[in-house]
Amino acid sequence: MALKIVKGSIDRMFDKNLQDLVRGIRNHKEDEAKYISTCIDEIKQELKQDNIAVKANAVCKLTYLQMLGYDVSWAAFNIVEVMSSSKFTYKRIGYLAASQCFHESTDVIMLTTNQIRKDLSSPNQYDTGVALTGLSCFVTPDLARDLANDIMTLMSHTKPYIRKKAVLIMYKVFLKYPESLRPAFPRLKEKLEDPDPGVQSAAVNVICELARRNPKNYLSLAPLFFKLMTSSTNNWVLIKIIKLFGALTPLEPRLGKKLIEPLTNLIHSTSAMSLLYECVNTVIAVLISLSSGMPNHSASIQLCVQKLRILIEDSDQNLKYLGLLAMSKILKTHPKSVQSHKDLILQCLDDKDESIRLRALDLLYGMVSKKNLMEIVKKLMLHVDKAEGTTYRDELLTKIIDICSQSNYQYITNFEWYISILVELTRLEGTRHGHLIASQMLDVAIRVKAIRIFAVAQMATLLDNAHLLTGNMQRNGICEVLYAAAWICGEFSEHLENPMQTLEAMLRPKVATLPGHIQAVYVQNAAKLFSTVLKSQEGSTEGTAAQETSQLMIDRLPLFVQSANLEVQERASCILQLVKYIQKLQQKEVEVAEEVSALFAGELNPVAPKAQKKVPVPEGLDLDAWINEPPSESESEDEQPKAIFAKEEPKHSRSRHTEVDEKELARRREARKQEQANNPFYIKASPSSQKVYQESPGVEHIPVVQIDLTVPLKVPGLPMSDQYLKLEEERRQKERADKKKKEKKKRKEKRSGRGRRHDSGPESEEDITPAHMVDIVTEEMPENALPSDDDDKDPNDPHKALDIDLDNLVESAGRRPLADSEKLPVRSHRAAKVAKSPVEDGDAENTPPSQEPKKKSSKEKREKKKDKDRDRKKSKEEKKKKKHKHEEKEEDLLGGEADEPVVQSEDTTEVVALPTSTNAEVSDLDFWLSNAPVPSNTQEAATVAATAEADSVPEATSGTAPDSDHDEPKNSELEETKSSKHKKKKQKKEKEEKEKKKKKKHHHHHRHHSDGGADESVQNGTVEDEEPLPPMSNYCLLAENSYIKMVCDIQGNLQDGSQVVVSVIFENKCDSLLKSMEFNVLDSLNSKLQRPEGSGPHDGFTVPFQLPPGVSNEARLVFTVQSIVMPQKMKGTLTFIVKNEDSSIHEKLDFKLHFTCTSYLITTPCYSDAFAKLLESGDLKCSSVRLEEVNMPFHHLLARICFHHHFSVVERIDSCASMYSRSIQGHHVCLLVKTSGQTVSIDAKCDEPTLLGNVLDEIKQTFSQC
Amino acid sequence: MIRAILIFNNHGKPRLSKFYEHYTEDTEQQIIRETFHLVSKRDENVCNFLEGGMLIGGSDYKLIYRHYATLYFVFCVDSSESELGILDLIQVFVETLDKCFENVCELDLIFHVDKVHNILAEMVMGGMVLETNMNEIIMQVDAQNKMEKSETFIFQSTRQDR
């Protein structure tokens, strides 16, 4: 043994450690791979040894090799071994290795669960820390599920070091196991106010990360974050919070208003650029969310823009970059304020830093106007020429196209200019965006009818010079442009100057080297051209020309027939046959042109890109249903080739309209010619034509800038867009002059004495009219197109699962308390740990009693807890008072100007009832937001007050403290100082309240321990020792005859959401023995009697006792119900035998069992804070009822509602009380009962309106009976 | 969220790579290469932000880097992180390294990559910033190193006993 150890340690001495490995690799520069492979062999040997130190060393080396790109997943098991070492040194090595190379599909990961759990609960904080760090990198859904509870426990660890790590890792757990979010959230929220800044920062981090994806769920935290923002000094936390607010403001504009002032203050005061920048960013977000009509916000915008300008002008490139980035956000909503900094942005375009140039490009998008578009694009074109890297050049190209085509070509005044820009762009070599240019060309040519003649001419030139732009075609994306060119020339061939030439260009042998889909377009459009050519040639006298054209087609097409591309081949052979037939006809001297052109007659209308998607499915058509029998699997392969056609040439699948719009076309052409003739600056599209000056007589006095004729106006295939700039200028000048003249005339005519106002001031946007009548055809949509297209969200987004409503959770007993299924899985044999689970940990009073009794924690823990609990209770009570106080004040605030307390007994009209009912309803957030922005100095005072309060409740953090409370008292205290006249009243009330509270507490206590018996219920609601209550009973008569009387009470089953327990008391009224009683009901679809196992559905329930004379006994029957929203009656029969001394008679008694909706309600205590949360959630439907002439004291009334309808009083103030109950299926029913005189009004809210309606009816009935 | 933290030298040799999202080893190397390519061709006095590469992230992601002597420190982050904040964080990271290694140089990172990992783990956890206070980080790192030392001491002494 000793020898082995010695041997082991000697071996170890010769082992390489990490440093040796690194050194070795550095010394073997030439044969690094070989050296490493020998090292890996050594490592494999080391891993086989028993010595954990050797293994750890090996794993450490593997981690290094992993970084160099070697797959080390084969050692996963060894890594787990090292992780489970008891020594921190090795454990750390193991966890590091695991975090570097484990992932979800590593199978040994499931072996680690227990080890990690052990480490998490290790007494050594660094063991725990290392495990948390490791876990954060390789957590899987399984691990997350199994360990969520352990990690949650760690969130309340005594050491802040562990707490912050545990808080942070929860985000990863949520991602992998979204179910854990709801149960963990209250505690997470609590950590926002952790005394340790690190933990606080971690919590802020996690919530910000969560809120970024699903901001609406976190709106309710805004007050808390606001408080943090005004109190925190940690810039890191501030940045996170401010970023979070940026995400929240779009959802709640009021929040934005509240934020602006503190943010502006921060902007002015902070010295940290990072913070300043984020503030500006969020202010921008706020301004975007607010409607732009706010006059006083222009100052904020100005401030932002001004600060950003400082950033952009800074010599620090980082600030410059960020300034531009933020500027682009302002641009979207306030383009005007950015446009004034155009100089600065254009300057940035020349920056040597590509990132900055790109950002500046983004900004340009919003800076263009009709006026400056040409100028800006010209500048960009210069950049295109200068740019070296293709990525930046491509970016420029897309930006140019974006800028020009934005909002339906809004800023383009001259489409000829645009077409020539596009043509110029085709000269870019190696761009990836050929298709983009092509689609623009197509779009413009199709949608702007006026431009077609020009476009066709340009495209013809392009086709003619195809060899210029497609030097190396296959590699070059630009050849896509030819696709557009060919199509445009073919489709609008009637505008071609020289169709024959173009036809020839399209049939050149070189075309065969183009990509297949382009060739296909060539072939198809050659046919269109052919038809045009025929038409013109047949018109003239020489018939031979037409025949020659046909011959040309027949000569050239076979090249395409041989194409490897199916599409090309098919089209070519089709057209070839057609031409051959035409030729035959021609030889017979038949005129064919008309018929051939009929093939391509009709106009193509542009179709919106999403049109296909939006075709509504006709009624009665089920797209998923099989039309024929489903094909066998082998058949499915046949469907494959179809896709090829559809994909390659979508354009041709469009249907054509048969009606010809010749007249319209002719008319337009005429109009255009007319316009051209009148426009002295117009350049004719024909290559031969020169610039034509036809100065119209009225404009002689305008100084015309002579165009420098050394600039070639039109060179085929070469740039010519610049000239348009000059032309445009002239045109505008002329227009201005025209206008002036007109105005003068007008003035003269009118002879009005008004002074001149329309002078030669800066040209406004509207003054610029487009060069020609531009008719931008809108894209067609199918009839009945669905209005909005759904944003296609990525279904695989892991954050989608985290879109969980958390609001109601905040007080743990809210509208939707944690269901049993939502509790985190806890391993049963570790019951001792469970004591700290969140629900358990939450104050017992605050957790809904409807929850299953919890697992008992160990006794010691309990005892320890007791003291704590006492403290906590105290603080709770204190808090409650405070809460109360503030709620009252809230009422006052809401009550508005009326100087009397809102809760008044005299008034029962609806109008007054409203504010009262809202008192609890108005959410904290609403309340918080409705306040005018608090001036900063008072704010500070308030913060002090809040912290003081926090001190007074030191235990608050361990319970599920209603954190938002801290805020309200603060506000209300402020309010208090203002309105001291309310003070006395309030104090008085408080006193009363306190007393009530005490009493109530007592009662609640009662109810917790007794089990829903009748006498207990009687007490419920009797808060004052006023009049004694008359005895009440819920047992009502079911049926009666001379032998027997049945009374019954129906109660919901606490344990099972679908069960109702019917207690029937059978009373023997005769003096014979009753036996063999069988209770039977006719089951309905909704409700069924639960019969003992083995009995059929029609068998009765045998009452398990006999009744001697005068005796009564009770039997309990269980019914299962599905829907509980409607009351129900069930028919039933009781059969029994009346046994006398001598005879026995069979008897039966029919009855109707009435399941009222009330019977589905379970008395559930609820606390005012939870109640308020519930009401504010807004998910509840409202309803109300009025009871007239109720002659009983209010407390009797309440007691009756409590008793008969299973409600509990939440809060009672004078003649107003709120009540709560819960159905067996978890519906919340909330009542606000008010009385004045003999009238009682009940406002009610419930998440199930039908149920609520029925319950109210039943309440009404109860009181009508008495 | 931080998606990856990379340290490489002027020649693109990785000195530390920490990915908070799983990639295969090949992709990781490719990302390192691509990132190096992007970062290394930038001048000294340009901004420290780069729109993300093709491989990592996408439009939402940015590369934020700093160049110190022979080393590039690159953080790949999404839009929830403040750009300037991350730049500060890199500074904190480097200063911490400087304190822990006493005048840190590339060689320290070459031979003690595990220690660098341990320091980083106290700053960033699972892609989220854990601690930005340098003193706190150093304190925790020191405490752990002390623990490690005491363990090796025990370990050696037990071995000697036998």
From TrEMBL, chain B:
The record describes its membrane topology as:
Peripheral membrane protein
GO BP, sorted A to Z: Golgi to vacuole transport; intracellular protein transport
Family annotation (InterPro entries): AP_complex_ssu, AP_mu_sigma_su, APS3, Clathrin_sm-chain_CS, Longin-like_dom_sf
Q: What keywords is this UniProt entry annotated with?
A: Cytoplasmic vesicle, Golgi apparatus, Membrane, Protein transport, Transport
Any coiled-coil regions, as ranges: none
Compartments where located: Cytoplasmic vesicle membrane; Golgi apparatus
Domain of life per record: Eukaryota
Its GO CC terms are: AP-3 adaptor complex; cytoplasmic vesicle membrane; Golgi apparatus
Q: Specify the AP complex mu/sigma subunit domain's residue ranges.
A: 1-147
Pfam families in the record, alphabetically?
Answer: Clat_adaptor_s
Name the family: Belongs to the adaptor complexes small subunit family.
What does this chain do? Part of the AP-3 complex, an adaptor-related complex which is not clathrin-associated. The complex is associated with the Golgi region as well as more peripheral structures. It facilitates the budding of vesicles from the Golgi membrane and may be directly involved in trafficking to lysosomes. In concert with the BLOC-1 complex, AP-3 is required to target cargos into vesicles assembled at cell bodies for delivery into neurites and nerve terminals.
Protein name as catalogued: AP complex subunit sigma
Q: Write down the species.
A: Gouania willdenowi
